[in-house]
Putative transcriptional regulator, GntR family
Amino acid sequence: MPDFWDLHYAQRVQLMKSSAIRDLLKLTEQPEVISFAGGLPAAEIFPVEKVASATQKVLQERGVQALQYGPSEGYRPLLELIAQTSSRDGLTITPENIFIVSGSQQGLDFVGRLLVNPGDLVLVESPTYMGALQAMAPYGADYITVPSDENGLRTDALEEMLALKPKLMYVLPNFQNPSGVTLSLERRKRLVELANRYGVPVVEDDPYSQLRFEGEPLPSLLTLDSQLRKSEGEPYRGNIIQLNTFSKVLTPGLRVAWIVASPELVRKLVQTKQGADLHTASLNQLIVHELLREGFIEQHIPLIRRTYGERRNIMLQAMEEHFPAGIRWTRPQGGMFLWVVLPEGLNSTELLREAVKENVAFVPGTPFHAQGGGENTLRLSFSNATPEQIREGIARLGRVFHKALAE
Ligand code: PMP
């Protein structure tokens, strides 16, 4: 017998797939499991005291404002501060270019709501962030994919996909989730140029750029686009929508993130926000503003970079030591993830079952592939486990892989 609710859902609910892998990952939440599965920041370095003192200060000095409803686009001084620090290298950002969201995940939902009609093609990398696939699927997005390699999305394969007239393109240029790879400068320029030529909106999801622990920062797609348009001095009005967040440089629990886009699009986003949740929590915005204003976030980032850089090194070293020959992996210069490719024929979802028996976990690669494939791939997160857990967890995984290859 169908459940009462099965008879009442909107059609779009059919497009919301629950993944079998999520159920499998539930098993990995036991305390004895060393999990490289979740994309969680390192909790030991959360600045709890600092957030507590900023909260107290905000409540003492601007308590009524912190507890009152606020404007849908966000707390004005926060918009101003972000605009000020974003305007450089030929890019001019005004507060009208900025929009505060309750996490960039909400930004992805809003992009879907504003731009995607049922049946529209949405161009994504393969692999890509599964949260973005989930966010836009209910609006009827049909995903098409461009492959990527160690230099990110393959722009040589891009033009033929753009010729299919996708409604928008979604890319992660820095330390991509899930692969950890970074889009090279040459490919960034090519992507921006092609997107312009084909008139396709580009969603640049960039939660990790500040978490670079190796190599030189590269200009964002937003910056390159504004240079191409020679729009310095004028508020940005191009086809890039950039998603940024305080989740990885401060804490994800505050749910404060921001979008940079053309002022016209921002005005539409304001209407969307009014229908969704009116505005992002005022108290949280004021806390973030306080920590940004006093320079704390800037001071805190090097500790995150050091911590993740060290953990990545330990993970890479342990993989060299324990993984059997024939397995390949990426070597990210920042962020929280690396990507493992097993020999053809091995299935990472099946191996997760074996891994859980050894009390270690990862995310199988298939849900990151919008058009299927990737059965022999998996994602490891190095941000959230301690060095000891990383050494032990990778040794356990090595045993699982050795065993699978011997069979
Ligand atoms: N985009 C990407 C690529 C992410 O990895 C994440 C977090 N896992 C998000 C968006 C969502 O971040 P937020 O906490 O800002 O909603």
About this structure: The chain has 13 helices and 14 strands. The chain has a mean pLDDT of 96. The CA atoms of residues 188 and 278 lie 35 Å apart.
